[in-house]
Amino acid sequence: MLVAAALAVSATSAATLHPGSGGAAASPGWSGSASCTITVRGPGYQHTETQRWQVSGPTRVRGSFHLVPSRWTDTGSGSSQETQGNQTRNITWTVKAAAAGQFQFVVRASDNKLVIGQANAQLRVQNGITGTQQITMGGVAQTPGPVGLEAFETQLPRIVTRRTSRSVSGSTPPTPVNGSVAPFQPAAGAVTKRCAWRFAKAG
Question: How far is CA 28 from CA 68, 108, 160, 166, 203, in A?
Fold first, then answer.
C-alpha cells in the first residue's frame, strides 16, 4: 500500500536511481502500465485501494539500466468503527495521491534474464489520505474532526522474463500480506494484494 513499511520498496537500485538522473538516451524504449489492488477486511473495518503506474517517456541509459519515467497514482476508500465501553469511534477516509517516479529495465548478468521494476525510493504523498473522525460517548456524538495521513507507494512483484522479450504481461492472484498496510488497520485485519502488468518495447 500505501502505508506500511512491510511493503517498502526493495528494488536493488532504488536508493541510487532517481527521476531525471543523467545518462545517454536510448531507442527503442519501453512503455506500459501496472497496477496493484490492496484489500483489507476486519471487525468493523474495510479498506480498498488501487495503485497504478503509467510508464512512458524518454528512456535514459545508466550502465545496463534502461530508465523510463513513470506516473504513480493511488485511489481508494475505507471506514472503521471501534467501540470500547461507552465510547465509539467512527472514521471514514478516501485515498487520492499521485507522484512521479521511474521504472528500470535491466538484463541481469547472473542469468541473462530481463528484470523489470520500480527504480525510485518509495513514493509518498502528505495528506494523500483524508477523511473524518467522529467519537460518540454515552450516545452523544462529539464534533467531527479531520483525518490526514501519508499515502505510500506499494512494491510491485519482481518481474523476470526472457532477455529477448519485447512484450511482457502477467498478473498475480490475490495474495495474503503480513503486517499493517492500511490506515487504522485493526490487528485482526486480513490483507490481500493482487497485481497486473503489461509492457512493450517499441521498434
Answer: 11, 19, 20, 11, 6
Across the chain, what does the average pLDDT equal? 88
- Burial code (b: 16+ CB inside 10 Å, e: under 16) for 174-202 equals eeebeebbbbbbbeebebebebebebebe
Residue 16 has pLDDT above 60, yes or no: no
What residue numbers bound the domain in which 88 lies? 5-201
Q: In the predicted model, what is the mean pLDDT of residues 25-32?
A: 74
Instruction: Count up the domains in the chain and report the number.
Output: 1
Q: Write out the three cell numbers for 19.
A: 527521476
Give the whole-number percent of the chain exceeding pLDDT 70: 86
